[in-house]
Design goal:
Low-confidence stretches: 1-8, 194-202, 210-221
CATH topology of the largest domain: Complement Module, domain 1
Protein name: Sushi/von Willebrand factor type A/EGF/pentraxin domain-containing 1
Shape: rod-shaped
Number of strands: 22
CATH architecture of the largest domain: Ribbon
InterPro entries: Compl-Cell_Adhes-Reg, Sushi/SCR/CCP_sf, Sushi_SCR_CCP_dom
Order of helices and strands: EEEEEEEEEEEEEEEEEEEEEE
Keywords: Disulfide bond, Glycoprotein, Repeat, Sushi
Organism: Elysia marginata
Largest sheet: 4 strands, mixed
Distance between the termini: 91 Å
Domain Sushi: 58-124, 125-191
Structural class: mainly beta
CATH class of the largest domain: Mainly Beta
Helix content: under 10%
Length: 221
C-alpha cells in the first residue's frame, strides 16, 4: 500500500496483520525510508506505532547556476519541490536560447536533483538594418549599426519633411525575436515646401514649424 500525502489504514484489521506503507514517487517521509511496516498486535495496537505516516514532496533545493543564463523573471513564485519547473533566460540582452526561444526549463526529479540536459547556447538575434527611406536618416541604436532583439530603430525624416500622408516626422521600429521589424514606414518622407515669414511660425519637436496649426517648414528658415 502506498500514499501520496496521508495513507489510508484498513478498518478493523485482523490480529497479526502487517501493514506496509511507502511514499509515492517523488515523495519522502521524515520518519522512515523505503517501506515502513507495522504489525497489528493482540491488544489492538500497531507495533511499531506509526507516529506520522505523511509523505512530503522531495525538495531539489536551489536551482543550479548555469553559464550565460539567469533565472527568468517569469519565475514569480519559485518552487523547488518534485515536478517543479524553473525557467532560465539568456543573461546578455538581445540573445535567445539557441537563437529561437526566450526561456529554457529544468525540472525537479524524484531523486531530489534538478534534471538538466546539455545547457543551451545563447545566440544574438539580429535584425537587418531597416531599408533606406527617401529624405530620411536612421538614428543609431544602442549597439550602433547592430540591432538585436528588443532594440528600437528610429527613422527620422530630414528637417522640413514628414512621412507622406501624415504629419509625423519620426517612425520607431522594434526588433522582434524572429529577427524581423514589427513595422516599416511604407511611405517616403516628403518636403513640406512652404515658406513663411519668421513671425508666422514657431518650432515644435525641434524640427518642424507650425503655421496656423499646420506643419509648414523646418526651423531655421
Amino acid at each position: 500500500m502506498s500514499t501520496e500525502n496521508q495513507p489510508n489504514t484498513p478498518d478493523n484489521p485482523p490480529i497479526g496483520s502487517v501493514f506496509y506503507v511507502s511514499c509515492s514517487t517523488g515523495y519522502t517521509s521524515s520518519q522512515w525510508s523505503g517501506i515502513f511496516s507495522t504489525t497489528c498486535l493482540n491488544f489492538g495496537v500497531w507495533d511499531p506505532y506509526p507516529v506520522d505516516l505523511s509523505c512530503q514532496p522531495v525538495d531539489c533545493g536551489a536551482p543550479p547556476e548555469l553559464v550565460n543564463l539567469t533565472l527568468a523573471a517569469s519565475n514569480a513564485s519559485l518552487s523547488t519541490t518534485y515536478l517543479s519547473r524553473v525557467s532560465y533566460e539568456c543573461e546578455a540582452p538581445g540573445h535567445l536560447i539557441n537563437g529561437t526561444s526566450l526561456t529554457w526549463e529544468v525540472s525537479c526529479s524524484e531523486s531530489g536533483q534538478w534534471l538538466t540536459d546539455e545547457p543551451p547556447s545563447c545566440i544574438p538575434k539580429i535584425c537587418t538594418p531597416p531599408a533606406p527611406v527617401a529624405n530620411s536618416y536612421l538614428v543609431p541604436g544602442p549597439q550602433g549599426p547592430l540591432y538585436l532583439y528588443g532594440d528600437f530603430a528610429v527613422i527620422n525624416c530630414d528637417p522640413g519633411s514628414v512621412f507622406n500622408g501624415t504629419y509625423s516626422s519620426s517612425f520607431p521600429m522594434f526588433c522582434q525575436m524572429d529577427g524581423t521589424w514589427d513595422a516599416i514606414p511604407g511611405v517616403p518622407c516628403r518636403g513640406l515646401g512652404v515658406s513663411v515669414a519668421m513671425r508666422d511660425y514657431h518650432c515644435v519637436n525641434g524640427w518642424l514649424c507650425v503655421v496656423k496649426h499646420r506643419y509648414a517648414a523646418s526651423c531655421g528658415w
